[in-house]
Design goal:
mainly alpha; 3 domains; 341 residues; 15 helices
Length: 341
């Protein structure tokens, strides 16, 4: 473990490790203010979470030290807290009347309005009462029906964005001028999609223990994805695009235990990124199959024009330079012929 790197993240001197609880949190010696201690711990935890994927060993060590410091200072603060002061004696009050005692019929409506309302303890499941001012005179106050809280919003994969990336982007439609190139892309997509599905099994399952065999299989699949994405078109696995989180896991070779040790929110983000990238791969495979069937039905002339059109789309500057060069050569040759005559 690199202790100097951990000290740099937390802004600590590199001479002594581990420092005491106050020095670790950047607090003056003997400070027992609980809100300040909790705030410092949360801020330093947030700093370490940024390095949890890149440097899991150092980040885990730092989080463990912060947790120990928080427990130590919390216990010390509880011992330093002053003894509670006994409440002053209160004058005896009249005993509370029961429901049967208050349910009398000799009081008028004005008497009930003049008396202060009883104290009610609100709970999450208690119905909401209609305000008395909103009710008409003589109407009985009724309760609104209890509405269950709405379920948390679940993110959905955008089909429009998926189609744009897999079928309309320059990266997805480029370098497909010949039938051999289309077949090569189909095979490349098939292999990547197969490894992608195998990797998804590890992201979905979250057991408490991770076996050595499962960790080894996870590392092998990450290596295959890393190798495949080095030559795959850049409509997938790039910053801001689906699959980027998974590709980062593959490039950094994050072990399976560290992936499953992430917070629940980060694991959900990783799983959603994997699902979105899988949908893009499926859509692109469907596009390639459609293009393959179209090219198979064309004649040699049609394949030639398709290759020319694909070359113009893939290399517009190079094609323009070639056309200009041919035009200049023809102009020079024509001028030479005219001069010889």
């Amino acid at each position: 473990m690199n202790k100097e790197m951990l000290c740099t993240w937390l802004g600590l001197p590199k001479a002594v490790w581990p420092p005491d609880a106050w020095a670790l949190l950047g607090l003056p010696q003997g400070d027992h203010d609980l809100p300040t201690i909790e705030k410092c711990v949360q801020e330093r935890m947030a700093k370490l979470r940024c390095y949890q994927l890149s440097f899991p060993e150092e980040a885990t060590e730092g989080m463990n030290r912060l947790a120990e410091a928080f427990v130590t200072l919390t216990e010390a603060a509880s011992k330093q807290a002053p003894a509670p002061i006994a409440p002053a004696p209160q004058e005896p009050t009249a005993p509370a009347m029961s429901k049967d005692d208050t349910s009398v019929t000799n009081k008028t409506k004005l008497d009930w309005r003049a008396a202060p309302p009883p104290v009610r303890q609100e709970t999450a499941s208690s119905p909401e009462l209609i305000a008395e001012d909103e009710a008409k005179n003589g109407d009985v106050l009724t309760a609104k029906p209890y509405a269950a809280p709405a379920r948390p919003h679940q993110r959905e994969i955008d089909p429009v964005l998926t189609r744009e990336l897999a079928e309309e982007s320059v990266e997805a439609t480029g370098n497909l001028g010949t039938l051999d190139r289309v077949i090569e892309r189909v095979e490349q997509t098939r292999r990547l999609l197969h490894v992608w599905d195998q990797l998804g099994k590890h992201f979905r399952a979250t057991p408490k223990k991770t076996s050595a065999k499962e960790s080894e299989a996870f590392a092998v699949r990450l290596e295959k994805i890393d190798q495949a994405m080095r030559t795959y078109p850049a409509f997938l696995g790039q910053p801001g695009l689906p699959g980027y989180r998974v590709v980062v896991q593959a490039r950094l070779k994050i072990p399976l235990a560290s992936v499953r040790g992430l917070p629940a929110e980060q694991r959900e983000d990783l799983l959603f990124d994997w699902q979105a990238a899988r949908q893009v791969l499926l859509t692109h495979r469907k596009y390639l199959r459609k293009l393959f069937r179209s090219l198979r039905r064309q004649s040699a002339v049609g394949l030639f024009f398709h290759a020319v059109r694909a070359t113009l789309n893939d290399y517009p500057r190079l094609t323009l330079a070639g056309v200009i060069a041919i035009f200049l050569i023809a102009l020079i040759v024509g001028g030479a012929i005219v001069l010889n005559r």
